[in-house]
Amino acid sequence: MDQKNNTVKVLCVQFLPKYKDIKSNISHLEQMLSKYSEQDAIDIIVFPEMSLSGYVFDNLQDIKPYTSLYNQGEQFEFISNISKKLKCYSYLGYAEVTHDGKYYNSCFIITPEGESLPSYRKHFLYEDDERWCLEGNDFGCMEITTKNGIKLKVGIGICMDINPYKFKSPFNKMEFANHCLKQNVDLIVFPTNWIDNEPNNLSEKHKYELWNYWSDRMRPYLNASKKIKKNVYMLFANRIGKEKKTTFYGCSCIMKIAPKFEIIKGAELKTETILEATLSY
Description:
Helix content: 10-25%
Structural class: alpha/beta
Strand order of the largest sheet: 5-4-3-2-1-14
Number of strands: 14
Order of helices and strands: EHEHHEEEHEEHEHHEEEEEE
Strand content: 25-35%
Number of helices: 7
Distance between the termini: 9 Å
Radius of gyration: 17 Å
């Protein structure tokens, strides 16, 4: 990481999308973000996985009307306009269709000029993904430069990417964490639609169970803490609500994972919110 100024301002959006209603979700997010402007000096904003379409689809035919090319269409236009308005990098999960007819659970990566970089494609698929999309080739990593001139190496994953592959590989293999560690990233963005298997449990303990699990899956950073001399952060953007029989957790958070673990900001279980933090490097 190269720097001229030592802070990066980030937002994580947690919201309740309407299932299969892209226009309504765009309007809702525009309203949530209306209080921000270029003068707020935001560098990065992260939205949940498949933010505008919903998540639980029966098959490819069911989801096809809600897919998008990476650089055109109403979903791209929405997130491109957000990036141009705020002059920031934006990461927004969506269902991608390619020009040659392949489908992925992906993440828009939009520059402050509103241009779309090649999308990150979810590498480890959850069972709901397997009904309609292909695996991405690998976990993500890219370099960006913030408005203050800070060059950051950014790791990217989506939801299931943090888990053992198909829940079958050894728990301590830690594929995603080790990828980020090997790439020597400064920041990790993580759009997710994390499922809550205890939807009636509204206790404070339940919130920390999720954060503890996420931090445990990044354990290689704890094991290497004596060697890591810089701050490394992770931005978890999760959704809330219910689709069919699936309830989503909420509890988005901004987490410091090196040189020690710390929750910088955390959201509640069932509440829409935008987390804000200024990260020090």
